[in-house]
Write a sequence for this structure.
């Protein structure tokens, strides 16, 4: 199969071993070509714009910019982008937030290679694909939501993209100065975003922001930060 007919995939995964293994598996399949590998959400946004892949295979829990915010920024820049989530975090809240951000598919990391390949080609063809387990679970959750009047996750849509990125960096333990360097903006702007975060979320310190980030899946609960 010629390179032009291959399904071009951008891999977004912060663990190098997983990323390299996925690359080998996809290229061995013969119908996929890995056009780029991003190790964090910021690289994903940049590479998605530069490479225009057919499918972006997206992790969620990543440093600097998580998969949710990366997805939101990619879709904002290119609504036609096709994002398939592959994550160890597949609770309903993660599925819901990623779908609201613009993802068209979601798989657990323990999924089989055959299902992964099938999902990639379904998404590349313009269809959506959610693993059978997620489909069953979200359908049940939807029925419960209708019964009890629940809607969407309260975090989704509450914060701007900038505020969400600042939240992640603060929760990961970066100082205002470090966050300013990471985002390429001034310390004063970081401080302003941080204050807006606290006002919106009714929180008063870094510990509160960190707990909020953990609870809402912005960072993994195993991230090594000090909470006082």
């Amino acid at each position: 199969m010629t390179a032009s007919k291959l399904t071009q995939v951008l891999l977004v995964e912060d663990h190098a071993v997983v990323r390299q293994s996925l690359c080998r598996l996809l290229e061995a399949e013969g119908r996929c070509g890995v056009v780029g590998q991003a190790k964090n959400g910021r690289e994903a946004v940049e590479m998605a714009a530069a490479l225009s892949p057919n499918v972006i295979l997206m992790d969620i829990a990543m440093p600097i910019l998580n998969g949710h915010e990366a997805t939101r920024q990619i879709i904002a820049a290119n609504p036609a982008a096709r994002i398939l989530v592959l994550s160890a975090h597949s609770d309903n809240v993660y599925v819901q937030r990623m779908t609201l951000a613009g993802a068209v598919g979601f798989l657990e990391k323990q999924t089989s290679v055959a299902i992964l390949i099938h999902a990639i080609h379904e998404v590349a063809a313009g269809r959506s694909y959610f693993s059978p387990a997620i489909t069953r679970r979200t359908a049940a959750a939807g029925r419960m939501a209708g019964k009890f009047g629940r809607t969407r996750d309260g975090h989704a849509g509450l914060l701007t993209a900038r505020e969400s990125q600042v939240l992640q960096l603060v929760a990961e333990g970066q100082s205002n100065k470090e966050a300013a360097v990471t985002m390429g903006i001034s310390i004063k702007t970081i401080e302003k975003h941080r204050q807006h975060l606290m006002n919106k979320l009714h929180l008063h310190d870094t510990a509160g922001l960190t707990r909020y980030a953990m609870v809402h899946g912005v960072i993994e609960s195993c991230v090594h930060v000090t909470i006082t």
Strands lie at 7-12, 32-38, 55-58, 83-87, 105-108, 129-130. Residues 3-145 form a domain with the Rossmann fold fold (CATH 3.40.50.2300). The first helix runs from residue 16 to 29. Residues 141-156, 222-228 have pLDDT under 50 and may be disordered.
